[in-house]
Every structure is written in C-alpha cells, then in structure tokens.
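User: Hi! I'm working on a homework problem where we have to compare a predicted structure to a textbook description. Could you give me the structure for the chain below?
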Amino acid sequence: MVGARLRTRQADSDTPFAAAFEDAADLTGAVTDLFDRAVPLWHLALLNPAMARARNLGTTHVMFGAYPRERIGEVEHTLRSVVESNRGRLLPAADAHRAWGERYFPIRPSIFQPGFPGLSREFSSVAELPQKLEQVEGGATSVALQGTVARSGEILLLTLDAREMA
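Assistant: Happy to help. Predicted structure tokens:
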C-alpha cells in the first residue's frame, strides 16, 4: 500500500513580487541572499532577458515570486533590502501579478511533452546558478531561461530556444 499526504493552503492570500536586474551577477546575488537568509517565501523564480521579453516583462533579468500575506512583516523589508543591495529595483504590483499569474509560461504542466523542440530541463543549485546563467548568456542570445528555486537549494532550470516560442 502506498499513501501520500498533501498540504494545501489558500492561494488568495498570495502576495506577488517581482524585481528587475540589469546584470546576471546582481540577479544571482539576490537569489543567493534570499536563500541564505531563509526568507519565508512561498515561491521564488527567475527569468533571463530573453524569457522576460517573451513574457512582456521588459528586457532585463527578472526575479519573481510570492509569499503569504500573513508573512508580510517577515518578508517585505528583507526583500526590499536584498533587491536594492544587489542593484535591482522592485517592479510595480501589476508586473508582479502578471509574472506570478504566468509562472508556468511557456509550458503548462498539463501539456509538457519531453520531445518539445528546443526545450531542456535540468536541476542545478543556488551555488551553481552564476555558472549556469553565464553559459546561457555566453551562448546564443535566443535561449530563454526560467528557473524555479526550491527550499533545498535546488533550481529547476527550463531553457527554450526563443525561436520556438514565436
């Protein structure tokens, strides 16, 4: 017999956030700082400029996520401090809500197909993130990247040839 227990929560109290960074090193610094400080976020993700462009979120690196409204006191000041100390800027609430609402772009979990042209998935770590972004940035400019950071320090990196999204 196999069993599972799933924890659920009310998503209507999610407080989305998004921040823009001109430089990949600043983005990775912010992700690392949030991870090292164990900021109690519900979700943390990142986009490279090609993916941000595809999602109409500008032309910079973007970090976004959400946290439960009841954690606002624990999160808001530290989040702002981390973003600013890594030369980023918090984006307006409308952009944060759009980034959060489209977090499964370009692939919806229910339609993911392993043979999708130009798509790759790999696990990395917060520590390896600078090297992974450097590989993408140093390669073809058409590679779009989205990463989702887990509490364990692992990051699921989804890369897609941006030409396949057109």
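For your comparison, note the following. The chain has a mean pLDDT of 84. Strands lie at 14-21, 43-47, 61-68, 89-90, 119-125, 143-149, 154-161. Good luck with the assignment!
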